[in-house]
Write a structure and sequence with these properties.
The chain is mainly beta. The termini are far apart.
Length: 151
């Protein structure tokens, strides 16, 4: 007599800091090139059936400049600009292919680090007139400047 034991599908789980905090935070420089950003989300599934129950599909919100492959590697899909958007809050889902499919989700926050990529803007009059009676040390003009970069 042969007894077959069928694997009962179990939910995948996060192994990285996402598991403990249920909220991952990663910093990415605004001048990062597209491609792998050197961060990985580790996910595991206790199921031994790698064909269905143990195979995990990872997904991030496609409306952001980030993606993830099924190995958990986070990627930058388009250029960032901290002055336009300094933070992205993205939902990450991990779903197995079992029947029924089981999954989990967590929030990833990407903080965009600023780089000095903007020139300062100087606001000053084009011309000024100075009286011949002006004393040394008197203020003769006021100028101001601004810069879109932080710091």
């Amino acid at each position: 007599q042969v007894i077959n034991i069928q694997d009962v599908n179990q939910r995948p789980f996060f192994l990285s800091q996402c598991a403990a905090e249920n909220n991952c935070v990663f910093r990415v420089s605004e001048d990062s090139s597209t491609g792998n950003i050197g961060q990985r989300i580790d996910v595991s599934d206790p199921d031994s059936d790698l064909i269905q129950n143990g195979q995990i599909i990872l997904a991030l919100d496609p409306s952001t400049p980030f993606s993830i492959n099924n190995a958990g590697d986070l990627r930058l899909t388009s250029m960032l600009d901290r002055e336009t958007q300094g933070r992205y809050i993205v939902n990450l889902t991990a779903t197995d292919l079992g029947i029924p499919s089981l999954g989990i989700s967590t929030i990833i926050t990407f903080i965009v680090n600023d780089v000095n990529d903007n020139l300062p803007i100087l606001v000053a009059p084009n011309a000024i007139s100075v009286s011949e009676n002006t004393q040394v040390g008197d203020a003769v003009v006021q100028v101001s400047s601004s810069d879109a970069d932080i710091g």
